[in-house]
Description:
Layout: H1 2-24, E1 28-31, H2 33-39, H3 41-78, H4 84-138, E2 142-145, H5 160-179
Parallel strand pairs: 1-2
Helix pairs in contact: 2-3, 2-5, 3-4, 4-5
Amino acid sequence: xxxxxxxxxxxxxxxxxxxxxxxxxxxxxxxxxxxxxxxxxxxxxxxxxxxxxxxxxxxxxxxxxxxxxxxxxxxxxxxxxxxxxxxxxxxxxxxxxxxxxxxxxxxxxxxxxxxxxxxxxxxxxxxxxxxxxxxxxxxxxxxxxxxxxxxxxxxxxxxxxxxxxxxxxxxxxxxxxxxxxxxx
Length: 184
């Protein structure tokens, strides 16, 4: 019985030291993907596309709101003077405008969400490719996303700036290739 206890204790000590030596050889880095999405040239370009489309949608929605407001004012002014049939006709027209406005707003929101997801995915593909490059160059075993619960890390572990520079360089090279006609 005593031999079994000694063997278990020795095994536990061996596992603790084995785990420690394994952790000492682990190469870890930290990255802030949100910073790259916001600060990269590709991220900035995506944001500008989103803002431009948002402004287009906003103008359309504002125009429809103005039409609905005019119909409402017309109804309020002529309520007493017009007959019930004419009033009902105008109220139906107002309700149709309001429904159209509601539908346009919902479609605009869906479009913006889909577009944001699409543009973000495009930038994330580039980020992932550049993270792979840094991982291979530095022979990293683990990369943690800063916003995923990392409480503290040594600044030398942060690869955000390197990945950002690679993403921007890749974006410039793609733009130059596009402007140059692609070569073939």
